Amino acid sequence: MSSVRPKLKPETPKAITAWETATGRVIWMTSTGEWSTSSDDTGAFTGDDAEARLAAAKANEGEITDPYFMEVDATGKIAGRETLRETIRATGPTVSYGENE
User: Fold this and answer.
1) What is the pLDDT along the chain (101 residues), one digit of tens a residue?
2) Is residue 101 part of a domain?
3) Which residue range(s) make up the domain with 31?
4) Is residue 100 part of a domain?
5) Between vectors from CA 28 to CA 61 and to CA 30, what angle results, nearest 5°?
6) Are strands 26-29 and 14-20 parallel, antiparallel or unpaired?
7) How many domains does the chain have?
8) Spatial CA neighbour of 1 closest among 84, 86, 90, 77
């Protein structure tokens, strides 16, 4: 695996993922443009729509950190996992959160 993010073709379905700045938790853009901490809520975007949504996410940095594309299938289910970073992001943190967090 590599730490380099793969370049995805415009027609490849993509999720937009980032970190929630206040908590450090992984978040996913939903099909309505909201953010969710559940990868089950991930929207799938392609073409110009995907680019516009990523640009809007980047304009919101401060509330979120480092938004980027991640390959998904047409329903938003995580696909690809070409890099270690995406594997960890897709399967959850490498440490356990306490019960009160």
Assistant:
1) 334 566 889 999 999 999 999 998 989 999 999 999 988 899 999 999 999 999 999 999 999 999 999 888 888 887 765 566 666 666 666 666 565 55
2) no
3) 14-91
4) no
5) 105
6) antiparallel
7) 1
8) 84
